[in-house]
Design goal:
It contains 27 helices and no strands. With about 575 residues, the chain is mostly helical. It is elongated.
Length: about 575
């Protein structure tokens, strides 16, 4: 679709150039152009910039190739000496052309239009249009995972939006900065931009959508899966109740699929991926389709369905080759570099006075020496600060490690004492009968509750039992000769948590023993330790361990090894 669109656009643009620049030739060439075509070309070339722009705007969604034709005619009329209103229409025409090319994945032509728009904006000080132009240039780099360069352009867009006090432009730049900083791992920066995003309220449905999605992404990166799932689910409902484009619906579905997949709920993940697949195929969104196919292939490969995984992978590779061409993207970087170079050369060529040029050169050298000196001092100061901070952080993590180890040892001693006391005590009265079915809701007697607490504790002392990945509450109920209803109630009322949290706590504590051991588990990887205590997913283990101990398992293991060495 994108290739055919480009071919149609090229043909129409060629026709437009002929119509605009050679009207007299067309009138004379009666044998090659029909009278109807000549009349149409003359009508187009006779339109004002406003008439062309209004017609192009009407066709942007329904006939993008025709819209590009009219936008291109307006852009070709640009002169630095033209009236401000006409110059503004030229800038907006170039910006809209860039948007159309961007939406159709033609990033090279999009970048070319945006760079031209940037030049027009700088010539005429069109700040609001320049802010949006920087943002779209940043989007192109984001699409190619060059987030550092994207952040640089988003920062420029935000600075301009702040100057002109445009809430919509501020909101869009902040939302882009939140996402780009998350993807580069700068979570502190992302959190700061997100706080500004929430404070920058304005009356538009996109405000709440971005607050929910960006907040969900931030929560997910911080390991708060429940919060992330809640915000993304609310965003999905919000999209369903508003007239958003396919891109927003597809993004929410993709994040929900990723979250459910990380929770090992693959059926739910597949549900949202298939929703995306239908949306992408129906609306011709090949970018969304490619990403969805890649994810479907990975999930089916994990589930062992190799035939289906291979089919999705083959279709994904065919699509990705047509979307992301690294050579084309390198040419975009060269175009950006060439633009800045040409701009600098133009300034230098205007410096005709050799003496002035030499003075500027000398001044630059002095400035550079000052900059280098100051930069060196700043670098030394930063290195000292980083060194001190690193020592403080290391000491804090060591202290946290010691507290976790002390708590673990205290709990071992406490449990040993409890077992010793239980062995000395004998039940004073026979235990009353209990229902064998989990569906009965008879009250638990004190004697039964005490017995279940004791038996559950004894059962959970067996690492071979709770470290089994297939261990469930049903098995625990069998071990203590009771039913799941009673076992669940006793766990909830005694420990204040459900069975899953109860089980995870035992597994995490056992993993602490193994991570901090110099015995058979000393050389185990984090993944191996996670599997050895019953976790099926390394990411789920890391999230649970961090939440329980306040530090990642890799850091815990590193400190333990230092102490044993």
């Amino acid at each position: 679709m994108a290739i055919s669109l480009i071919m149609r656009i090229s043909a129409l643009l060629t026709t437009a150039v002929i119509a605009f620049w050679l009207p007299t030739c067309l009138c004379a060439a009666d044998t090659s152009v029909s009278g109807e075509d000549k009349a149409r070309f003359e009508a187009i070339s006779g339109m004002s910039n406003r008439q062309l722009f209004d017609r192009a705007t009407q066709w942007t969604d329904s006939l993008p190739d025709s819209a590009l034709l009219y936008f291109d005619i307006i852009a070709n009329r640009y002169r630095q000496s033209m009236a401000e209103d006409d110059a503004r229409l030229c800038a907006e025409a170039l910006l809209n052309s860039g948007k159309i090319f961007y939406d159709n994945f033609n990033y090279s032509n999009a970048m070319e239009s945006l760079l031209k728009c940037r030049k027009v904006c700088e010539d005429n000080n069109f700040q609001s249009i320049l802010s949006e132009t920087y943002r779209y240039i940043g989007n192109i780099y984001s699409r190619h995972s060059d987030y550092e360069r994207a952040i640089a352009f988003y920062d420029k867009a935000l600075a301009i939006a702040d100057r002109v006090a445009d809430r919509k432009l501020i909101h869009m730049a902040l939302s882009n900065l939140v996402g780009a900083n998350i993807f580069t791992g700068n979570l502190d920066n992302a959190a700061g931009y997100y706080e500004r995003l929430c404070d920058n309220r304005y009356d538009n449905p996109c405000y709440k959508y971005d607050v929910l999605v960006d907040g969900g992404l931030l929560a997910m990166q911080n390991g708060d899966i429940d919060k992330a799932l809640g915000m993304m689910t609310e965003a999905s409902r919000y999209v369903a109740n508003h007239d958003f484009d396919v891109t927003k619906a597809g993004s929410v579905n993709s994040w929900l699929a990723g979250l459910y997949n990380s929770m090992e709920r693959t059926d739910s993940a597949l549900h949202y991926l298939h929703l995306n697949e239908k949306l992408a195929r129906r609306h011709g969104q090949i970018d969304l389709l490619a990403e969805t196919l890649r994810f479907l292939s990975e999930i089916h490969k994990t589930k062992g369905n190799r035939e289906l995984a291979t089919a999705y992978l083959e279709e994904y590779l065919a699509l990705s080759d047509s979307i992301f061409n690294q050579k084309v993207f390198n040419s975009l970087k060269n175009a950006q570099f060439q633009y800045d170079l040409d701009k600098s050369d133009g300034i230098i060529r205007n410096l005709n006075d050799e003496k002035l040029r030499q003075e500027i050169h000398i001044g630059q050298q002095r400035t550079m020496l000052w900059v280098i000196s100051i930069a060196t001092l700043i670098l030394v100061a930063m290195l000292l600060v980083i060194y001190r901070q690193k020592r403080h952080i290391s000491a804090a993590y060591t202290d946290l490690f010691e507290r976790n180890r002390a708590n673990l040892e205290n709990e071992k001693a406490y449990r040993a004492r409890i077992r010793e006391l239980q062995q000395q005590l004998t039940p004073a009265t026979p235990e009353p009968p209990q229902p064998a079915s989990a569906g009965q809701s008879a009250d638990i007697t004190p004697q039964l509750r005490e017995r279940l607490q004791r038996d559950i504790t004894e059962a959970m002392d067996r690492t071979d039992l709770f470290c089994d990945p297939s261990f469930t509450i049903n098995r625990l109920a069998d071990e203590v000769k009771s039913n799941t209803t009673y076992v669940s109630r006793v766990i909830n009322e005694t420990y204040g948590m459900n069975f899953r949290a109860f089980l995870n706590e035992y597994r995490i504590k056992e993993s602490m023993n193994r991570l901090g051991s110099d015995g058979p588990y000393a050389n185990f990887t984090i993944k191996a330790i996670a599997e050895s205590v019953g976790f099926k997913s390394q990411s789920a283990f890391i999230a649970a361990f961090t939440k329980f101990t306040g530090m990642k398992p890799s850091m815990y293991q590193e400190i333990a090894r230092r102490q044993f060495s």
